Amino acid sequence: MSRLTEEKARLSEELFVSLGGMGHLTDEEINSRIEEAIIKRCRQTYVSIEERRQLKKELFDVFRRLDVLSQFLEDEDISEIMINGSDKIFIEKRGELIRVEEAFSSEERLRNVIQQIVSGCNRIVNETVPIVDARLKDGSRVNIVLPPVALDGAVMTIRKFPKEFFTMERLIDMGSITAECASFLRSLVRAKYNIFISGGTGSGKTTFLNVLSNYIPKSDRVITIEDAAELQLHGLENLVRLETRNANVEGENEVTMSALIKTALRMRPTRIIVGEVRDAAAMDMANSMLTGHDGSLSTGHGNSAREMMLRLETMILMGYDMPVAAIRGQLAAAIDIVVHLGRLRDNSRKVLEVCEITGIKNGEICLNTIYEFVDEGMADGKVKGALKKTGSLINLDKLQRSGEEPDCEFCN
Asked: If phi over 0 gives left and psi between -120 and 50 gives alpha, with beta otherwise, what is residue 190?
């Protein structure tokens, strides 16, 4: 532990004892008390001006913000923060996992920060309800697991979202997608094809959905439904955002994603955007796409477009006693396009597949691959390859009805 860290721990403990957590003080009063404590400490040991400035900031973070996490949340190069108990913090910075020396002063302090986060978004987490998904004010996604489920102390994972809003042009510049494929997807969104985005953890599903939403006409009434609100849709005036709610301590008043999807159908939506589906709500998502609300979007975890369809089947079977054939028929009728994203071995994120759902054949969902990423190996530490057109769109009905005239020749 560095000398500055030791000084911070000693001062924060003294301030907690003398001021009872400072909850009754304003920010200005807290800063004043912190300064007084630092000046008093300087009479006993040497603290440089730069160290004083750093101590003051970090102590303010302890009492008014998220303690040691504040500095990581401010660093735009950090995409993920992983807390494995009070004394083990890891970050993902520019694609690399790093353990940092910073730590919470105690498990109690970590628990206090966790309660501060969950209370800010009307969630509950305790030993009775030890797992919760929450969010920070900036939209960052938070997952929390408490003991006794977490054996070595409270675990918290924070997925940060970039402050800068991504556009399709930026994704093209980054090599995540080609201009031709982007033009294809723009035409499909405007023509109201139902699109499902699949991919693994950290593949950029939410970011890609946000980017696709830029193509939605501004006149459309859009309703978003999420477990923990993280979508950042810009430029849509007629936007309604809905979020699920966990049950209270008595196990009552839960609002599920299924319930929100059902009520959204009564809110005169033009399009429904369902955040990541993880359970039997996949059936409600599919139903919403079949009730006249074309142009809907959703996301889910999968290893490929085909495996994503298998996962959706499994999710539905978890909550519904239905024949598999009926479930496959429902999914094939609901979803028009699957866009599969991946995070490659050089940590780059790319569109790996764009597939069309063409129906059922021999009891199986048929996929027509229109674009596919061809991996050509590594060079200079980067994955080389290209997203290549491998097929043509078969279902042209929605395009023809919408009058869309795509720039690329994907219909040939």
From this structure: alpha
Q: What is the pTM of this model?
A: 0.78
3-state SS record for 201-222: CCCCHHHHHHHHHCCCCCCCCE
In order of 8, 101, 125, 380, the CA distances from 114 in angstroms are: 20, 20, 8, 42
Digitized pLDDT (tens) for each residue of the chain, 412 residues in all:
466 666 666 666 666 666 555 555 666 766 677 777 777 766 667 667 777 777 767 666 666 668 788 889 889 889 999 999 999 999 999 888 999 988 887 898 899 889 888 887 778 888 888 999 888 888 788 999 999 999 999 999 999 877 777 889 999 999 999 999 999 999 999 999 999 999 998 888 989 999 999 999 999 999 999 887 788 888 888 999 998 887 776 667 888 888 898 899 899 999 999 988 888 889 988 988 888 789 999 999 999 999 999 999 999 998 898 999 999 999 999 999 999 999 998 888 999 999 999 999 999 999 999 999 998 888 888 888 889 999 999 999 998 888 766 544 555 5
In one-letter notation, the amino acid at residue 304 is S
Q: What is the DSSP letter of 194?
A: -
Give the separation between CA 383 and CA 132, rounded to whole angstroms. Answer: 36
Q: Give all domains of the chain, ordered by start, each with its CATH number.
A: 1-64 (no CATH), 65-162 (3.30.450.370), 168-402 (3.40.50.300)
DSSP reduced 3-state for 383: strand
Instruction: Compute the distance between CA of residue 153 and CA of residue 369 in angstroms, rounded to an integer.
Output: 46
